Amino acid sequence: MTSHSVEHVSTWFDTILRRPVERLEWWHNGVPYAVRYQFPDTCEALCEAYDRGRAPGGPWARLIAKGTPGGTRTGDLGPPDRAVPVRRDGDVVATPPLPPFVWYECPLAVL
Question: Are strands 103-105 and 44-50 parallel, antiparallel or unpaired?
């Protein structure tokens, strides 16, 4: 690897690590049932989680039924109930803890 390549990669990592990150949360009965981490400037998802046991019934039951093998996509849930900043200007922001979730990646093709 040339010094130019190393510098280019270093700059790229620095840029990624300074991008803001937010956690979107969907709540029911006082606890989050779905969560998504994303870059707020592009809405590019990083990972997400969905807990069927904590999710509301009714219209959400249709989403559960058509969930993909990796889990229900949070993009199908409508607007989140809360957006929590996780990283701003490269600095980590203290965030409230979450209940346990099983996390899954967000494949680019689904976003």
Answer: antiparallel
Write out pLDDT tens, residues 88-101: 988 899 998 999 98
Return the closest-CA partner of residue 111 out of 51, 55, 61, 36. Answer: 36
Rounded to two decimals, the pTM is 0.79
Tell me which range, 14-18, 42-46, 75-79, is most confidently predicted by mean pLDDT.
Answer: 42-46
Cβ atoms of 71 and 50 closer than 8 Å: yes
Contact yes or no for 98/35 (Cβ under 8 A): yes
- Whether 11 and 4 have beta carbons less than 8 Å apart is answered as no
Question: How many CB atoms within 10 Å of residue 22?
Answer: 22
